[in-house]
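debug: dumping io for the single-chain case to check the tokenizer round-trip. Nothing else runs in this session.
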Amino acid sequence: MPTNVQGYNSGSGVNALTAEQHVFFQDEMLDRLIPELHWTEFGEKKNIPKRKGATTNFRRLNSLAEVKTELPEGTTPDGVDLNITAINATVKWYGSWTKISDPIDLAGYDPLMQETAGLMGENAGQSMDLIVRDVLSAGTNVMYANGKLSRATIAATDKITMADVIKARRALRRARVKPIRLPNGAGTGYVALIHVDVASDLMQTDEWKKANNENNTKHWMDGVLGKMYGIWFVEVDNGVEFDGAGATGADVYGTIFLGRGAYGLADINGSGKPDIIVHTAGSAGSADPMNQFNTIAWKCAFTAVRLQELAILRYESGASV
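debug: decoded output
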């Protein structure tokens, strides 16, 4: 395992192996367990043209009042004013980098430049996913499991129930939140991004088994755990968790229910797609006078913004351990 390699991070961002030995490595680096990245999937995308600044504006037309009076004959009624909510979003820059010394690149047993490029790509995707997750989990539209009134009163035994799932659906429907069209073309519905621990409890309920294991096995598809009451449950490895925040130090988990128009993602001319940057030894000129270091980096510019609070419901519960 890589943890056995001495001196792998012997300097500030400078990886210089002091005693690499073949026994510590297999012929190929071990595959990593990379979580599927779902937090960025369901946002409304907006692209700022190049050289047009770093701030864009999401505009939401609010619903009009219903008409319940009959039109008077031969008379045109007064028109109505549109009610528009504008939400600004300013793009932010993110990135990371590392050095690989020339001796490691030449004498190492693994194609380290190639492997590190893959590692940087993985780090970029996971970082962006967590940034969006933290935005979506920070709202005030919240519901607590088992009728509890606060996070601090949630116990580990306050697990997700179908009664609570129905209540979450009711809250979205009563707020007139529209369903989402799933990116994979599976259909429409609300989406619930659910922590692995909470998903384990959900799948053990009789209602879940009936709906997804017996009646409609086609609900099992890439990236989707299953469907209940018009809600698609998407299991996320990097789910929302509030460590020790519940009763007697219990961990509390947040399931994020989403409807259409819940949040937006903005970038500049495609800058939300991470750019992998590789500089070989010697390309830095006088900054690397002896051609000693390769560098590998990733960089991106994007932002996530909440657009409709009522379309983002956080359901907090305990979970089995």
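debug: round-trip ok. DSSP finds five helices and 16 strands in the chain.
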